[in-house]
Structures are given as structure tokens and as C-alpha cells.
Specification:
The structure holds 3 protein chains of 3 kinds. By secondary structure, chain A is mainly alpha-helical. Chain A has one domain (3-318): ABC transporter involved in vitamin B12 uptake, BtuC (Orthogonal Bundle). Chain A has helices at 3-21, 24-50, 58-75, 79-103, 108-127, 157-180, 182-192, 194-199, 204-230, 235-238, 241-254, 261-283, 290-305, 310-318; strands at residues 138-139, 232-233. A two-stranded antiparallel sheet of chain A has the order 1-2. In chain A, α3 packs antiparallel against α4 (79-103), α11 (241-254) packs across α12 and α12 (261-283) runs antiparallel to α13. A two-stranded antiparallel ribbon of chain B has the order 1-2. In chain B, β1 (131-134) and β2 (137-140) form a beta hairpin. Chain B is built from 11 helices and 2 strands. In chain B, α2 (41-59) crosses α8 (187-209) and α6 crosses α7 (177-183). Chain B has one domain (3-279). Chain C is an alpha/beta fold. Chain C has 2 domains: 25-143 and 289-371, Rossmann fold (3-Layer(aba) Sandwich), CATH 3.40.50.2300; 146-285 and 374-387, Rossmann fold (3-Layer(aba) Sandwich). Chain C has a 7-stranded mixed beta sheet, with helices on both faces. Chain C has a 5-stranded parallel beta sheet with strand order 2-1-3-4-5, sandwiched between helices. The longest helix of chain C has 21 residues, at 313-333. The radius of gyration of chain C is 23 Å and the shape is globular. The chains are: A mainly alpha, B mainly alpha, C alpha/beta. Chain A binds chain B through residues 47, 53, 55, 100, 104-106, 108-110, 112-114, 116-118, 120-121, 124-125, 127-128, 241-242, 245, 248-249, 252-253, 256, 287-293, 295-297, 299-300, 303-304, 307, and chain B through 37, 85, 88, 92-96, 98-100, 102-107, 109-114, 118, 217, 221, 225, 228-229, 232, 261, 263-264, 266-267, 270-271, 273-274, 277-279, 281.
């Protein structure tokens, strides 16, 4: 067992045992971190694997969440069934966007803008969709929260923590095995130099579409989780470009295209955000806005001095 | 649906569109030449708007007058920003550029919040709520003046890029980075100049915009997005394209608002963006 | 068995009498977690509510003789942060939570409060569904969107009666967000039933709350040629609309809101100056003639000498009352145990209050019924209560002086 696997194992064990020694507050923070780690990992598939910058990923979170949520709200069908419908819908959306983009040769900034446009379009659309509550929001009935009702995904915060932890681990393992597989090599080739990959006979269109579809599917699950954890959805909040930016903060800071980047990034950012709040409160500098200024400066510093993200630098140090 | 109503709405849409175009002009210049994704564009305009309100409060000067010194300051700011912060990022991948400017935007918005507080600020000039009356047609004075500023600025820039030596050099850098270097142009300097020029446009736009809209710290992001939509639709690096894109968006939103549903009018801008991206990604007046 | 009970009673008595300081220490200070959006896009409202919280400890000590300690948290206008902040406050020992102004955040915090068994008193949030979830620890001392509309429309009828006017038509403009949509639905539901209202709505125009340009909307509204403008808005769009009305030379009989923020807020006056005059908002408000209002106003001026309570009437007033409810329950319960507090809150019956309406009493859903609204008109650059006559400090003006029949 090499150093990497050992460290990974210890880390995983810590995460599993975490609720035992952490309070409720830390548990809620950890759930949030894992949520962003998982969603970031899902985004990373499209960016890191296929090299396509999506700035409208909140689209899949929103559509996934609303689909499963609306199905539960209108027909009482639990999230395990709703999940598949949500995934199917998001994959379809991803495929449409991917198809439009790749067929018409749109990439780079233009692709990013296309994704933003779709997300905004959908946001305004949902604002006018009465079936999902319109701007007034979709409120899911919170039946009970004491016992683990896995079928309807209702229960205490502990249940949600372990669910998102499982999802994050699953995403990590999935990406790990994918990277090592043939698909992984094709993706890396396309990312490095698409023309050369094409010259080698790789059907870049097909593999890019696969990455997009996979990313969309994974992100939709994130949306379903979100819907049943928060129990209400507003188009303005769920589809907003702020959300899309939040999703990519983790992977970009942590390290795009790396396996561990999104997780590390999510941890660092949330810890940073909370620590800043505590620190500023302790000093007494509670001017509205000051915390975000510090946060922005740190972000700036990381982007400037650690261009590939924190994880590659850390990994080098630890000689992993 | 009377004829007067439609005409009024069309005129308003066109004028508003020209103002949007003015706002997008700076982005077109920067994006068209330096190819940097300036996601802090709207925030920069917000800073310009605040500058105009502060100068108005202190000196009582009309924003159009104040536009000159503010533009000069912004030129310097843009030049320095490009040299110090953005230059190393030109060759970096888009997501890095994006993140850099998102961070800059976050710092700007919240610094503004800290300094100015969350309340809206504005200027109060005499002609602000006045309209020209031509029969049954009403033309908003402030909007007309702002639109005029847009056309003047765009015209000035166009002449600069077409006829001046610096302007031609900048266009060379935009067209062919390698070639420009080969010929011996100091590309970095020209990039910085361009960024400075782009910021000049932003400053003028801000001073014009402050007559129409109250400024609050979180005003920026919506305008950044709008600027990108306009620049893509109109065409990168094209002055006329920015104005045309602006007018298209302004008029389509106005008509959509009139005939369909005002609350959904933004959908049309995004729909238009998607169509342009698919069928004519260089924009209406851009070159491939 | 009996002996043990006796010994226990004896021990309790010994504790109660022999250790008076211990008993007092148990029920000494109530820790209230104040969770508001003090930064982010709701920043200015959160800061307004905070003013109502800051003056509370002093006033409540004077009124009820109990000590309360405020634990302030800023959820930055972000729902995720609202949830974690709430958890944090509870972990740090908050006995009660008060807040948050925003319906989305209220829903998130409610779930945390319910999960942890800590009472949560909502100061302001209009989404009706929050008190329809069967929560046992969530309480709301504010009108639901439906109540706001019903009261608002009724007050419009009173307004016309008081000024002897009979407008026949109205154009209804509303912002297309959570609040606006709920109001629009409410109006659609209540208008047909309120047959004493003399007017009909000839056109409905909904607009984007983020829009900076409302030229088209106002053009459409003007073209409807209605007698007056019925408006559901927020602060920023209210200002834009008012300006656009001047630019397009549209002067209806008046601008009346059946219940929405915006036109009574300080920014509206500061930005529009004389143009803000005569706009009417029918909103939950404080009774300027109530005893408690005067006490609160004094405390407010002491802490904010350059400000006026009237500009924060709704925000600060309801925040203060929410804290009052918590403190009152604490006084009766004599304990900081959350469950006991929740039970005590359920038994609340406060008639000496600041906001208009009947006594504060919670129904089985945790909702206070009978909160009143006032017709608040902008007169002399101040929001002034003109109806109901019992609380009024001036007479309503309608139609407005600049009215020009189209």
C-alpha cells in the first residue's frame, strides 16, 4: 500500500467518523463542503476531462432539483425514482448544449457564454413556470426529520451528511477509474490538443459529448440532493450565475483536472470563509463587506501565484 | 396598441440600446484585442458611476463634464491593471482568467459596499426627468444625450483605430499576435494601451449611465453579462458592432416587453445570443 | 415512594431557599440569536432590522425587567449561510432565534430550528407556506402575503371613502418575484369578493425586479388610460417607475400599493425628493399613538440620533416585537430551556404592543392572526399614517394635486 492510498484511507476514515466528534454546526458546514466538493467534481469532468469551460452549471443543479422536487410535490413519488427522470432530463440538456456547441465549432469563451445564456434563459423560464411554483418557489413538505426515511430521503442532518459523503466518494472513485481507462486517455488527449487527437483517429465529438453528458448527469444528482436537503427552491437562487461561480470556485482553486482538487478547494474555501467571519468578529471589524474583500484578495492571490491550483502545489510538497 | 405607443417604445428601445452599446464598447475593444475575458467589466463601470456621484456631490458638476477627468483616471487605471495583473494571464487558460477577474470583481463590489454603504446614490441634474415633446412622441432628454455620447465615443474610437498609427498598431496586435511581434511591435505596451482605452469607454459609459440609473454596489454583474451578450451579437472588436448589438438588444427587449411579457424580456437577449453563437459566432459586424 | 417524594421536595425547597443565587442564575439571561442579512443584496434591509434589535435590550429591561443578550449573525443574503449560521448560533447557546426577513432563509432556518428543538420567531417573511409545514418550533408575527393583500385592498376601499373619490379603473403593475407573484395571486383571489371596491383592473403588467429600464412597462401602463396605478413593487423599481412616470408625463390619480415595500423607505424620499410625495402604501405598520411606540422611538433616537424611526417602521418594529415575544415568554417560563420557551411562546398574549392590530396570540400553526395594516402616505417627505383614523396623524390626500385626467 503506497503512501497515497494510505493517506486517502486515513482521510476517508476521518470523514466517516467526523460526526462523532463534531457538533451540529460543524456537521452542517461539513455537509456544505462535501456538497460543493461533489458538485465541483462533477463540473470537473466537463472541464478537466473534455476541456470545456462551463459557466452555467447551475442549470443542471436547478433542473435536477426542480424535476425531482416537482415529481415529489405533485405526485408524492420519492427521490429515488425522481432521480432518474432528473438525470435523464439533464443529460438531454447537456447533449443539446454539447451538440450545438461542438457541431458549430464553439469553444473556449464562446462555449462558456453559451452555457451562461442557457442557464439564464432557463432561470427566467422557471420564473414563469407555474407548475414548479414560479418565482414564489417550490416548497417540499417536510414530513419528519427524526428517523432515517431513506425512501423519501427525509431524516436528521446526519443522514444527509452520510449521503453526500457517499456521493463524493463515489464521484472520486468514478473519476479515478475513468482517468485510468481508455476514456481517460482519450479525454486527456483531446484536452491537450484536439486537432492532434483527431488526427490520431479519435472521434473527438463523441468523447466530448460523453464528458458533457456524464458531467450533466452527476450534477443533476447534486440538484436532487439540494432539493431534498433544503426543501425549497427559487429560480432566482438556484439558477443564478452566482451559483455557477460557486460551483467552479472549488475546482479552480483546488486544481482543475485533478482528482483531489475539487475536494481540497471546497474545504479551503469554506474554511476560509468561516474563519474570516470568526476572525473579523473577534477583532471587531464587523463592517458589512469587509469579509468578502479579504476573501476576494485571497482568491486573487491563489489564482496569481498558484495557477494550477492548490492541490498540485501541496502534492508536490508532500511528494505524493 | 396604438401607433404612438409602438413608436415611443421603439425610440426608447433604440436610445437605451445605444447606451448599452456605449457600455459594451469598452469590452469590445478589450476583448477584441487582448482577448481577455473581463468579468469585472460591469464592476468597473460601477466604480465610474460612483466617481461621478462623488464629484457631483462635491463640485456640483454635470456627469458629462466630469466624464473627461474620470476617463483620464480610468485610462491610467486600466493601463496599470493590464501591466501588473492581467499580462501574465494572457496565455493562461480561460478559467484562470475568469477566476482572476471574478476575484477582482468581488474585491471591487465589496470595497464599494464598505466605502459607500448599501444605499443607492445618484446625481440630480435639471434635465434628468425632462422629455422632448414632438407631437405625441416623447423623447427622454437624458437618454438622448447619453445616446449621443455613445455615438460620439464610438465614432472617435473608430477614427482612432482606422487612421492613427497607434490605432493601426493595436489592430495589428489583435489580428496577428506573432506577426506583430515579428514586426517589432511592443505588444505588451499596446495591450496595456488598449486596456486603458477600454477603460476610458467604461468611464464615459458610467458617467452617462449615472443619469439614468441609481448606483448600488451590486449593480455590476448584470451589466457585465449584458455587455458580453452585446459584444458577441455585435461582433468582437467592432465599434459599430457594439452599438448595433446594443440597439438590437434594446429594441428586441422593448418589443418583447410590449407584445409579450415584460418580465420575460431578458429571455430574448439570451435567445438572441444563443442564435448568434450558433449561426454567426463572429457577430454581425465582426470578422472571423 | 412517598418518602422519596418528600425528600425530593425538601431538597428542592432547600435549593430554592438556601441557594437563591443559584436559582436566579439559572433563569438570568436570555440569549437571543439575531440572524439577519447585513451584507449582500438584502444588506440595507438587514441593517434596518438590526436597528430594531439593537435597541431592544434596554427597552425590554425597562418594560419587563428581564435581561436579554443579543447574538448577532449575518447570513449575507445567502440561504446556505443562513442554515450554517443558525446551527452555529444554537451551538453557541442561543435559546431562541429571531429573523431573517427573507422567505428562503426563513425556510432553511425553520428546518434547523425544528430539528434542534429551538424556538424561532420570524420577524418578517410573507411566504404563506412557512407556517403550513406543521412545525412546532416556528412562530411568525407577521402577515402572510394573503393577509397583506386582503388588508391592503380593504384599506383602499377605506381610502376612497375617506376622500370621497370613486375611481373606476386601475392599472396593476407588479414585480415578478416571490413577493409580487404572491400578491398578484392574492389580488386575483380577493378582488372579485370585495364588491365595495368601485374600480376594475384594466391591465396587468408584470416586470423583472432586476430591470433597470422600465420604459416599455410604463408606456404600456400609461396607454391603459386608467384612473390610478395599483403597484406591487420593491424599492429600486419603485424609484425607477416614479421617474419614468415623470419622463412620460403620466399623472394618474395616485400610486397605491396594496402591500409592498419600497415607497415608504428612506431611499425613496432621499432619491426622489418632492416626487415621492403622496405615494400610498398599505402595509403592516406601527401605531404612532401607542405607548410602546413612543418608548421605542425614544430608544431609537438615542442610538441613532441622525435617523428617524419612521423610515424603519416596518423593519425595526417587527424585529423589536419578535424579540419582545421571546423576552415575554422567558419572563413567564422563568427558564432558558428551549422546549419550555417554545411552550411559553405558544401561550403568548401581548396586548400592549407597538405594531397595529389585535393582541399577539399564536394559532396552532404558529401564526399570529389579526395583525393590522395602515394606509401610509408620503406627506412632507415622511411616511405618515393616514388610516385607520384611530392611528392616523394626518388626513389622506387623493387624488394627488398633479392629477391630470388623460
Amino acid at each position: 500500500m503506497n503512501k497515497q492510498t494510505l493517506l486517502l484511507g486515513i482521510f476517508a476514515a476521518l470523514l466517516v467518523a467526523f460526526p462523532a466528534f463534531a457538533g451540529n454546526y460543524l456537521l452542517s458546514v461539513a455537509t456544505l463542503i462535501l456538497y460543493f466538493a461533489y458538485t465541483g467534481q462533477a463540473w470537473n469532468v466537463m472541464m478537466g476531462f473534455a476541456g470545456q469551460l462551463s459557466l452555467g452549471h447551475a442549470l443542471y443543479v436547478g433542473v435536477g432539483g426542480y424535476t425531482a422536487g416537482a415529481i415529489f410535490y405533485h405526485w408524492g413519488i420519492g427521490p429515488w425514482a425522481g432521480l432518474w427522470v432528473a438525470m435523464a432530463l439533464c443529460v438531454a440538456l447537456g447533449v443539446i448544449i454539447g451538440f450545438l456547441a461542438f457541431r458549430f465549432g464553439i469553444s473556449g469563451v464562446y462555449f462558456a457564454l453559451l452555457t451562461i445564456a442557457f442557464a439564464e434563459f432557463t432561470r427566467i423560464g422557471f420564473d414563469h413556470l407555474d407548475w414548479t411554483g414560479g418565482p414564489g418557489g417550490l416548497f417540499l413538505k417536510v414530513a419528519q426529520r427524526d428517523t432515517w426515511d431513506v425512501a423519501n430521503f427525509r431524516g436528521p442532518p446526519l443522514m444527509y451528511y452520510y449521503t453526500i459523503l457517499s456521493l463524493t466518494v463515489f464521484a472520486f472513485l468514478l473519476c479515478f477509474f475513468l482517468l485510468k481507462s481508455k476514456a481517460g486517455y482519450y479525454w486527456q488527449a483531446i484536452r491537450e490538443n484536439e486537432e492532434a487527437a483527431q488526427a490520431l483517429g479519435i472521434n473527438t465529438f463523441r468523447w466530448k459529448m460523453l464528458a458533457v453528458a456524464l458531467s450533466a448527469a452527476m450534477t443533476s444528482v447534486s440538484g436532487v440532493f439540494y432539493a431534498f436537503y433544503y426543501n425549497n427552491l427559487f429560480p432566482e437562487q438556484v439558477f443564478s450565475i452566482g451559483r455557477s461561480i460557486e460551483i467552479i470556485l472549488g475546482p479552480v482553486i483546488g486544481g482543475v483536472g485533478t482528482l483531489f482538487g475539487p475536494i481540497l478547494g471546497a474545504v479551503v474555501l469554506t474554511v476560509l470563509s468561516d474563519s474570516l467571519t470568526e476572525l473579523l468578529a473577534a477583532i471587531g471589524w464587523e463592517i458589512p463587506g469587509i469579509k468578502q474583500v479579504f476573501y476576494g484578495v485571497v482568491l486573487l492571490a491563489v489564482v496569481m501565484f498558484l495557477p494550477n491550483g492548490i492541490w498540485p502545489a501541496v502534492a508536490k510538497r508532500l511528494r505524493l | 396598441m396604438s401607433f404612438d405607443l409602438v413608436v415611443n417604445v421603439l425610440i426608447a428601445g433604440t436610445l437605451t440600446g445605444l447606451v448599452y452599446g456605449l457600455m459594451a464598447l469598452g469590452l469590445s475593444v478589450i476583448f477584441g484585442v487582448v482577448r481577455v475575458v473581463n468579468f469585472a467589466h460591469g464592476e468597473m463601470m460601477t466604480v465610474a458611476m460612483y466617481a461621478a456621484t462623488v464629484l457631483f456631490a462635491m463640485l456640483g458638476l454635470d456627469p458629462f463634464v466630469v466624464a473627461l477627468p474620470v476617463a483620464a483616471a480610468f485610462f491610467v487605471f486600466g493601463y496599470l491593471l493590464q501591466t501588473a495583473l492581467i499580462n501574465p494571464f494572457i496565455t493562461r487558460p480561460e478559467h484562470s482568467q475568469f477566476m482572476l477577474l471574478v476575484a477582482v470583481a468581488i474585491v471591487m463590489v465589496n470595497a464599494l459596499l464598505m466605502v459607500f454603504g448599501p444605499d443607492a446614490r445618484n446625481v440630480q441634474v435639471d434635465y434628468q426627468l425632462d422629455s422632448f415633446e414632438i407631437g405625441k412622441i416623447l423623447v427622454d432628454k437624458a437618454r438622448l444625450y447619453a445616446a449621443a455620447a455613445a455615438v460620439l465615443t464610438a465614432g472617435g474610437l473608430f477614427l482612432f483605430f482606422k487612421f492613427s498609427k497607434t490605432g493601426k498598431a493595436i489592430r495589428a496586435c489583435a489580428d496577428n499576435y506573432l506577426g506583430a511581434k515579428v514586426v517589432g511591435l511592443n505588444v505588451k505596451k499596446y495591450y496595456a494601451l488598449t486596456f486603458g482605452l477600454g477603460c476610458v469607454c467604461v468611464a464615459i459609459a458610467g458617467c452617462a449611465m449615472v443619469l439614468l440609473v441609481d448606483v448600488t454596489p451590486p449593480l455590476g454583474p448584470a451589466y457585465t453579462l449584458l455587455a458580453f451578450v452585446i459584444v458577441i451579437v455585435g461582433g468582437l472588436g467592432s465599434m459599430g458592432g457594439a452599438l448595433l448589438g446594443g440597439v438590437l438588444i434594446g429594441v428586441s427587449e422593448a418589443l418583447a416587453g410590449l407584445f409579450i411579457a415584460p418580465s420575460a424580456k431578458s429571455m430574448f437577449s439570451f435567445g438572441l445570443l444563443i442564435l448568434v453563437l450558433l449561426f454567426r459566432p463572429q457577430g454581425l459586424l465582426g470578422r472571423r | 415512594m412517598k418518602r422519596r417524594q418528600f425528600t425530593q421536595a425538601l431538597a428542592a425547597a432547600a435549593v430554592a431557599t438556601g441557594f437563591p443565587s443559584l436559582v436566579k442564575a439559572q433563569a438570568q439571561k436570555l440569549k437571543i440569536g439575531i440572524i439577519l442579512p447585513r451584507s449582500g443584496y438584502l444588506g440595507f434591509i438587514g441593517q434596518s432590522c438590526q436597528k430594531g434589535a439593537d435597541l431592544a435590550p434596554g427597552v425590554i429591561k425597562q418594560m419587563l425587567g428581564v435581561d436579554i443578550e443579543l447574538m448577532n449573525a449575518d447570513f449575507e443574503s445567502n440561504v446556505d449561510t443562513a442554515r450554517t449560521r443558525a446551527e452555529r448560533l444554537i451551538q453557541e447557546g442561543a435559546n431562541v432565534l429571531v429573523g431573517p426577513f427573507d422567505s428562503g432563509a426563513a425556510s432553511a432556518i425553520a428546518q434547523v430550528a425544528e430539528q434542534r428543538g429551538v424556538p424561532f420567531v420570524i420577524n418578517i417573511a410573507a411566504a404563506p407556506l412557512i407556517t403550513e409545514q406543521g412545525y412546532k418550533f416556528v412562530f411568525r408575527n407577521f402577515q402572510t402575503a394573503g393577509d397583506i393583500v386582503r388588508n391592503g385592498l380593504a384599506l383602499i376601499g377605506d381610502l376612497f371613502q375617506a376622500t370621497n373619490t370613486v375611481p373606476r379603473t386601475a392599472v396593476f403593475m407588479h414585480v415578478n418575484d416571490t413577493f409580487g407573484q404572491a400578491m398578484a395571486k392574492g389580488i386575483g383571489a380577493f378582488m372579485p369578493r370585495l364588491t365595495q371596491l368601485p374600480f376594475k383592473i384594466v391591465d396587468t403588467i408584470s416586470y423583472d425586479p432586476a430591470a433597470k429600464d422600465l420604459t416599455v412597462e410604463v408606456s404600456k401602463a400609461k396607454a391603459a388610460n386608467a384612473d390610478f396605478l395599483l403597484l406591487v413593487c420593491r424599492l429600486n423599481d419603485a424609484i425607477i417607475l416614479r421617474r419614468e412616470m415623470v419622463k412620460q408625463r403620466w399623472n394618474p390619480m395616485g400610486i397605491v400599493s396594496p402591500g409592498s415595500p419600497g415607497m415608504y423607505e428612506e431611499q425613496y424620499f432621499k432619491t426622489l425628493g418632492k416626487l415621492s410625495e403622496h405615494s400610498i402604501s398599505n402595509v403592516p405598520w406601527y401605531n404612532p399613538r401607542a405607548e410602546l411606540t413612543k418608548v421605542v422611538e425614544k430608544a431609537f433616537l438615542k442610538q441613532n440620533p441622525k435617523d428617524k424611526l419612521v423610515f424603519h417602521g416596518l423593519n425595526a418594529g417587527f424585529t423589536f416585537e419578535a424579540i419582545l415575544i421571546a423576552a415575554d415568554a422567558f419572563k413567564r417560563a422563568r427558564s432558558t430551556d428551549p422546549k419550555t420557551l417554545a411552550d411559553a411562546i405558544r401561550q403568548t398574549n401581548i396586548s400592549e404592543k407597538m405594531m397595529l392590530g389585535g393582541p399577539i396570540k399564536f394559532n396552532e400553526k404558529g401564526q399570529v392572526e389579526g395583525i393590522g395594516s395602515a394606509c401610509v402616505q408620503n406627506l412632507n417627505l415622511l411616511p405618515t399614517v393616514v388610516l385607520p383614523t384611530g392611528a392616523a396623524t394626518a388626513k389622506p390626500v387623493f387624488p394627488v394635486p398633479g392629477y391630470k385626467k388623460a
